[in-house]
Amino acid sequence: MKATALCHGAATIITGFATGNGGAYGIGLENRTTVELNDSGKTESIVNGEADVGVVLAEAAVKRALERFKADFTGAKVVTESEIPVAAGLKSSSIAANVISLAAIGAVAKDRGEIKEVKLSKTLKEQKIIIGGEVVEDMDVINAGIDAAFDAKVTATGALDDASAAYLGGYTITRNLDREIVYHGGMEETLKVLIYLPEGRSYSGDIKPEMVNAFSKEVGLVWEQARSGRVYEAITLNGLIHSTVFGYGCEPAVKALEAGAIACGLSGTGPSVVALSRDNGKAVKDAWESLEGEIFETSINNEKARVIG
After folding, report:
1. For residue 153, what are the domain limits?
2. Residues whose CB falls within 8 Å of the CB of residue 210, separated by 6 or more in sequence, listed in order
3. 306 within some domain
4. Of 152, 186, 220, the domain-final residue
């Protein structure tokens, strides 16, 4: 049995290391993953055509999904096509855990359940996955992915903020350590998302608590602002704090804001800096042209992850 799932990327509103509370929003970069369940006794992982990449996380995500729904397959082949840069602060691990878990659960549903579209209104539909007569809830999938991320040691807090924003779309404000989504809402659909990615990579599992604990009070205040709805201000302030903490400097954010971005900040542990613009984003891109690195352009995502095949 096999299934293919789609999950979009995410970027940071509030970084969760200092307080355990966070926030993130969905962006248009995609990860499409196919999981084929088998009885080989091992997990294969192929990412963007390269074999043996991300095997530990893939194995953990498949295992958690199979355990949750008591499926008796012993192995899997996991094939991923992803637009999301690894170790860049753009939630690649959370998204991978989400989409592998969802695809594995979708494969189980094809074996002993069903996947159907439920009409909510004339224009709205929602996908329902049913296994053994039980409806699979969104948090079942998200929690399976978080558990897998802990198993694979690619997260320090569980990153519910990243996982939930990527899975549900829109934005979420969360208490990561309690696995509580405090708020989930939509983002402005028409915003242009611009990503500046300098050279170098950062792994969240390498972050030491003492690097961020000194700013826990300030980060907590910014989280409260985000919870009250001041999301764009929170993105910028959080980014300025963590750019300083992690030693990146604030030049990319300052340039973007001077060029008219409504918000700009470091995403995760970096090095990516993400700006939001209400126009076509050309002024921000022009402002970043003098910086060394790559510039990506994408959109806001408000759509939920789903099984697509």
Report:
1. 2-186
2. none
3. no
4. 186
Global confidence as pTM: 0.94
Give me the amino acid identity at 157: T
Which residues touch 245 (CB under 8 Å, ≥6 apart)? Answer: 211, 212, 215
80 - beta bridge partners?
Answer: 33, 47
For residue 216, how many other CB atoms are within 10 A of its CB?
15
CB distance 219 to 266 below 8 Å: no
Q: pLDDT tens for residues 53-79?
A: 999 999 999 999 999 999 999 999 999
| CA distance readout (Å), 195 to 44, 198, 234, 252, 256 | 31, 10, 17, 10, 10
With a CB cutoff of 8 Å and minimum separation 6, the contacts of 205 are: 153, 154, 155, 156
Indicate the pLDDT class of residue 91, thresholds 50, 70 and 90.
Answer: very high
Q: Which two tokens stand for residue 35?
A: 């999981």
- Are the CB atoms for 272 and 88 separated by under 8 Å? yes
Number of domains within the chain: 2
Nearest to 198 by CA among 265, 241, 248: 248
CB 263 within 8 A of CB 233: yes
Look up the CATH number of the domain holding residue 270.
3.30.70.890
Contact 73, 66 (CB under 8 A): yes
Q: Tell me phi and psi for residue 291, to 5 degrees.
A: -90, 145
Q: Which of 62, 5, 60, 4 is nearest to 38 (CA)?
A: 62
Q: Do 193 and 298 contact (CB within 8 A), yes or no?
A: yes
Q: What is the DSSP letter of 165?
A: H
Residues 193-239 have pLDDT tens digits of 999 999 876 655 566 667 788 899 999 999 999 999 999 999 999 99
Q: Is position 63 within any domain?
A: yes
Tell me which H or E stretch contains 172. strand 171-175
Pairing of strands 75-82, 43-47: parallel
